[in-house]
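Colleagues,

Please find the record for the two-part complex below.
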Amino acid sequence: MRQIALYGKGGIGKSTTSANLSAAWADKGLDVLQIGCDPKHDSTRMLMNGRVIPTVLDLIREQKTDLAVSDVIYTGYSGVRCVEAGGPEPGIGCAGRGIIATFQLLEKLGALRGDLIVYDVLGDVVCGGFAMPMREGYAEEVYLVTSGELMSLYAANNIAKAISRLSANKRSRVRLAGVIGNGKNIECEDELVSEFAEAIGSRMIAFIPRSKTVTQAELNKKTVMEYAPSSSQAEVYRDCAEAILLNTEFSIPTPLSIDDLESLAYRYLKE
Amino acid sequence: MILSRSPTDTLRSEGCTLTGVLSVTGFLKDAVTVIHGPSGCTHHNVSLLHASLAEIDEVQIPCFLSSNIHEEEVIFGGEKALLHALDAAEARDSSLICVVSTCIADTIGDDIAALCSQKRSVPVIHIPGAGFLGGGFSEGIRNALSSLLNLAEADDMRSDDGVLIVGEKNLEYEVEENFREVSCLLSLLDLAPGIRFVRKASVSDCRNIGSAPATILRAPSLQSVGSLLRSRFGMSVIPGFPVGPDGSIRFLEDLGDSLGVDPRPAIRDAEGMVADLYTGFDDLRDTAIRLDCSGADPATVSAARSVLHELRMKEASSGVLLPLPFDPPVGIAGTRRMLHSWRRCLSRA
């Protein structure tokens, strides 16, 4: 079983990427579990054809006891099993603790199984709860999803710091497995993301160009893999999924200082 | 704010902010205190207060309610749980509800102040009690007294009111003896103690504290509360209970000066009492002793050395080890109790 976490800035396209990768792996016949770790709870929506599934935290709040695997896991496109952690209403409570409670429940239910577990995690929040997927026993491979925008790179660099910090624990096996570029139509964006990846001691696994197909698929409440399986965009996701399956190069990242990060971004923007 | 810390913090004697708050609000006669946090915070503090009060032969346990928050409230917010606890507190027909926050309530960011400001049949006061923010037991006392000051009405001045006593240590073994000593010294100036803020006071007493002509703080650590009283009511503030015989004389001078009362007759009386005190312990003169100063308050050590000097007792490495009281000896009576304990030690040696 491989456990993979995708981290990145909110709105950067983590959920779209995660859902399409899960769909690509499921199409290959792999047993995939995707866990959305974002209070926004829309990670698996396209896999579920637009259905917003009940979140684990909602179920804990309403039912509290005797929850079964069937209460929290919903089967979506191509058999991908979907879970949403959920979270509190904005402005109240502690979402990080919610992630921890979700993981504890999934462990208790024995639900963390399959060929691949994909954790789709909000990367803007860096409290302990959102680092839960990187802790011992969960994801050992972390992929940073970023565009060429400075704030997106900043968030990715921050997550690299978290991985670096957690790697210092001898028992920790979490490593940075690569960077996935998610294009925002910035000039030379793939080169910028690739250089960023190398600068932090990793590599760009794939660059996903911006495409109308993604928007069209989402308007039809489907992943690209389901909506347009023969499109070039579907091929991009398939290649990325394959690259991840074949990837064996995991590293402890060397995050950049804010000055170095800004210099890097500035150089590309200037050019 | 992250404060610098060291492993020695685990040995601190300053306790928890929450306990400090409860050591004040628990002594409001007609108030209910809601502790917004897990029930363990309430249980732990009730046990602690019960044990401390039993030590001073008080068996009445203050009325505390817990909002009893669990993991669900930590994740989704504990404001509903607090509202439920406030409803329960309101049903108890009290005159005031004090709401004290705990570490977890402040960590998850519940808007306790906003909930406390909602209109109810009983006034509700929010008192910060989260220990992780720094401070300790004394900070809790200050937080409680400062918050309760909001009950006071400024336009209720009566010239015949007694002197306000602020921040008595309700868990202190000699709390009543110390109060009596201060009352005795006040009587030398023809003054009387007024409201005890807060020791077995009612909520209506708290509303009237602004009418006092002057206030006496239990300890200098309450200076911030004294500043509030001074700025809000224009009150003269004596910064602490008198420590030792010398402190008693200064106390009379300061209080007389601040109230425009000639302190000289009172000081003469007090000096006579001090002379009687030393005469009563004449048997201790010229003895060789050592003071057990470990962890002692510097004011206690200073008062003790002053007494040693008056009685011509000698500090020597071979002398009998004498204990010092945990809190500085209050006035002449407190010094007498210290000398009695020394006499017992010397007689056993």
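The mean pLDDT of chain A is 92.

Comments are welcome before we finalize the supplementary table.
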